[in-house]
Design a protein that fits this description.
alpha+beta; Immunoglobulin-like; five-stranded mixed sheet; three-stranded antiparallel sheet; 8 strands; 15% helix
Length: 138
């Protein structure tokens, strides 16, 4: 009886491939098109709370005489209550690659259904594109 039980366990392990799995090498990344808005979008909402409460009412950009990029976002509160969010800007080159110039997150208080202009200026003249990121305040 013990020999039959041992044989069944051995067959189950053999059928499951336990201990005999071979690695096929490198793997491709998964879901590269999902949740990848930050790579090529000018304005992104980083969490469900921000997505529910915040939008923008337009973004203007201009290149200053010294070559730096100035971006102004009109951030809008979609709710009928005062909210606090955090906002920052990541400056990128013409190929959407970050230039290493990223502003720190700053607190932004939005009044009921109000629009507030927030301005960002790049620290160097490499910036040609940008991503403004908004998240809930912690």
């Amino acid at each position: 009886m013990k020999q039959i039980l041992a044989a069944l366990i051995w067959l189950a392990l053999l059928a499951g491939g336990v201990g005999c799995k071979t690695d096929t090498g490198a793997y491709l990344p998964r879901n590269t098109n999902q949740s990848n808005q930050e790579a090529t979008a000018n304005f992104v909402l980083m969490d469900p709370g921000a997505a529910r409460s915040v939008t923008h009412a337009g973004i203007t950009e201009q290149v200053l005489p010294d070559g730096r990029l100035e971006v102004t976002a009109n951030v809008r509160n979609r709710e009928n209550r005062r909210i606090e969010v955090q906002i920052n800007c990541v400056f990128k080159d013409g190929n959407w690659v970050p230039t290493g110039d990223e502003t720190p997150f700053e607190n932004l208080i939005l009044t009921e259904n109000g629009i507030t202009a927030v301005q960002f200026v790049s620290a160097n003249n490499k910036a040609r594109k940008y991503t403004i990121r908004v998240r809930q305040s912690r």
